[in-house]
Amino acid sequence: MKYGIDTFGPSLWDGEAPELAVAGPNVGTNLWLQVPFSGTVGAACYAAHEEGIPAIAFSGASTGNTAFNTSPVPKRSLVYAELATTLVKKIVDSGKPYLPQDVYLNVNFGKVEGKCTDASQFQWVLTRINTGLLSKDDTEWCGEDRLPTETEIALKSGCYASISVGDAADKTTADAARQKVVLGKLKDMLAHLKHFSNLDFLRHLGITIKGRSTIALNYTLTMAPIDRCLASMARLSLLQTPRPAVPTIPKFLAPAAAQQVRQASVVRIRKTTKKKKKALPKDFKRHNLAKREFPQYSLCEAMRVLRAVEVGQPPASVKYEIHINLKTARNGPVIKNSVRLPHPVQSDWRIAVICPEGSEIAQQATAAGAVAVGQETLFEAIKKEQINFDRLICHEASEAALNKAGLGKILGPKGLMPSKRMRTIVPDVVKSMRDSAGAADYRERQGVIRMAIGQLGYSPDQLKNNIKVLLNKVKAECAEISEEVHKEVHEVILSTTHGPGISLNGKLKDAEEQITPEALSSIM
After folding, report:
1. 420: which of 57, 87, 386, 502 lies 20 to 30 Å off by Cα?
2. What pLDDT is attached to residue 269?
3. Residue 76 dihedral angles phi and psi, to the nearest 5°
4. What's the CA dihedral at 345, 347, 350, 353 to 10 degrees?
5. Tally of CB atoms within 10 A around 234
6. Survival protein SurE-like phosphatase/nucleotidase domain spans which residues (predicted)?
7. 3-state secondary structure of 82
8. Backbone phi and psi for residue 444, each to the nearest 5 degrees, phi listed first
9. Alpha-carbon separation of residue 288 from 107, 327, 475 (angstroms)
10. Would you list the DSSP string of 258-282?
11. 3-state helix, strand, coil in the chain (%, to 5)
């Protein structure tokens, strides 16, 4: 999932991050106690919680590992694919935001067998992940304030697909407010189902209770669900009836029913007031630095402290790094671009140029220092993964040939695929090479832009010039984006490879400081 979000997805969509993440369908269901240990659910929670991208985890009860190129395609694969497509389309058509913040959907399909061999035969049911014994009420649906559990629907005979609204932070059931948002998006496709009763639950597990009349058994069907009340089981236990013919229910399947019934008449469950989980704010939290009197330092003072921390480290392995904290929305657009620093951190870029073979453009690129030049010959080398360059520029005359060559799967994950958006498909390759030689890429993640800003031997003036150019570029991009959403620079922090982060006050040197910029202008 991380590779898809950070690398593969942007290579397909011109650097844009995906808007919706899908994990699965997984072979076998992921229900209740299985959820915290599921890789499928874990991938969806990573997307929703860490990357802020709405996510859905799909799992199917029909098992069997099958190669992707198996022919004919198994029926279960076709049905699950159609069901997953239906739900994804429904979510997308409902509009943004597709899901509430920090929410994922845990979806479990029933077995594809018997009467359930077509996607149109399946009914969608809104459920919860864990039992609600001590939980607050769910969102109201079907005239009740407690949703059925995934396990109940999995045990119910029929063609069902359960949809649970999960909290991506802890993989449990989300609160009623966030359930209500999802219910509003899916309401017209959901079926109305009641809870299983206690006896229904036992019957699905293959357990029979002897000595009960048909009337008495039918009467128990009207009792409360198994995660609501123990009284019905207690009343059954007080009668002189034989024990069940098979072993008792495993605790992980029916914990309420598996408790020793002799305790049911004396144990009183105290009502606990569970604190309502706070919803994540729409914006990333940023403290008021002036109000908190947060310590900030001049550039020279910060460099003095950081250089002292790096004493004993090989100078060539240490770089100054900048962290720009932004005031921005969690689900807003992100900043991603490159900047040409006046004092490049890395100057030994190896650049290759895609252009017509033997053309004047190829000769100019070679004279400008390109390590590889050409079209078909360069394509063949890339297909053999003989990539001896750090950056790849394409002349616009070769754009059609580049698209036809189909190199996206090789170059995309490496961040080398040329595109007009990233200004690597250009009419003037020599100018682009000059600009690219001193360019550095940066990207906003979780409201912070991080990048190397200088070598340890840079003087304060060199470092100041690099920081100034980067900040001006970021502020200009914030101004463009601010037409849609609010985004601005909040704080600038300087650090080194092994050093702490030091907040800068925007000054080169404070008046009372005795250290001079010249003393910080050499490698230690």
Report:
1. 386
2. 59
3. -60, -35
4. 100
5. 17
6. 15-115
7. helix
8. -80, 130
9. 42, 11, 19
10. HS-GGGTTT--PPP--PPPPPPPPS
11. 35, 20, 45
pLDDT number for residue 251? 47
- What's the confidence (pLDDT) of residue 35? 93
CB atoms within 10 A of CB 32: 19
Cα separations (Å) of 374 from 234, 390, 399?
Answer: 82, 16, 13
- Nearest in space to 453 (alpha carbons), one of 305, 298, 344, 349: 344
23 to 54, 237, 367: CA distances (angstroms): 11, 44, 49
Neighbour count for residue 70 (Cβ, 10 Å): 9
The backbone torsions φ and ψ at residue 196, rounded to the nearest 5 degrees and listed phi first, read -70, 150
Which residue in 434, 423, 424, 415 sits closest to 354, CA to CA?
424
Amino acid at 71: S
Query: What pairs with residue 125 in β-bridges?
Result: 162
Residue 215 identity? I
**pLDDT, mean of residues 111-128:** 94
Kindly give the pairing relationship between strand 21-27 and strand 425-426: unpaired
| pLDDT per position as a tens digit, 344-356 | 887 667 889 999 9
Distance from C-alpha of 459 to C-alpha of 456, rounded to nearest angstrom: 9
Query: What does residue 78 show for φ and ψ, rounded to 5 degrees?
Result: -65, -40
Q: List domains and CATH numbers for the chain.
A: 2-189 (no CATH), 198-263 (no CATH), 282-345+441-524 (3.30.190.20), 348-437 (3.40.50.790)
- Whole-angstrom distance, CA of residue 504 vs CA of residue 494: 7
Whether residue 305 is predicted with pLDDT greater than 80 in this model: the reply is yes
What is the Cα–Cα distance from 25 to 399, expressed in whole angstroms?
Answer: 37
∠ CA 49-54-55, rounded to 5°: 85
The type of residue at 335 is I
Neighbouring C-beta atoms of residue 336, cutoff 10 Å: 18
Rounded Cα distance, 44 and 37, in Å? 13
CA distance 134 to 227: 9
DSSP annotation of 297 reads B
DSSP character at residue 217: H
> pTM for the complete prediction?
0.44
Bridge partner residues of 321 (DSSP): 452, 495
Confidence of residue 194 (pLDDT cuts 50, 70, 90): low
Residue with tokens 């997984």: 26
Compute and round to an integer the Cα radius of gyration of the chain. 31
